[in-house]
Design goal:
Oligomer: single chain
Order of helices and strands: EHEHEHEHE
Number of strands: 5
Largest sheet: 5 strands, parallel
Number of helices: 4
Structural class: alpha/beta
Shape: globular
Strand content: 15-25%
Length: 117
């Protein structure tokens, strides 16, 4: 169908349903090839959803594995991972540590539609 989309998950554990919607839509868009490229970025409180000790993590992990199989780029703000003390806990096979400013700047430069949840 065309187009590129970057999903930005700002919603943390208290708003897990918002994050779940983003994960589900991103998975479905990639699976059905509704976009040429689908990417995901966890920032701010959304970073806490990547903590394996978070009670919502199994749900998030389910989608992360699906996104990985679909070759969707999934990143977490490295600075936020440090702030939330998650640098050693985040599954780096499912999520890439990256500079959120650079990810967003690249998305803008390349004409991605940026959707926040």
């Amino acid at each position: 169908m065309g187009g590129r989309v970057l999903f930005v998950i700002l919603s943390g554990p208290s708003e897990v349903e918002k994050a779940r919607q983003a994960l589900r839509i991103a998975r479905n868009m990639a699976k059905e090839k509704f976009a040429d490229d689908v990417r995901m970025l966890f920032v701010g409180p959304g970073t806490a959803l990547l903590d394996p000790s978070n009670p919502h993590y199994p749900l998030v992990e389910h989608y992360l594995k699906a996104l990985s199989e679909l070759k969707v780029y999934v990143a977490v703000c490295a600075g936020n991972a440090k702030v939330y003390n998650l640098e050693e806990k985040i599954d780096r096979q499912l999520v890439i540590m990256d500079d959120s400013t650079a990810v967003l700047a690249e998305a803008v430069a390349q004409g991605y539609v940026i959707v926040t949840f």
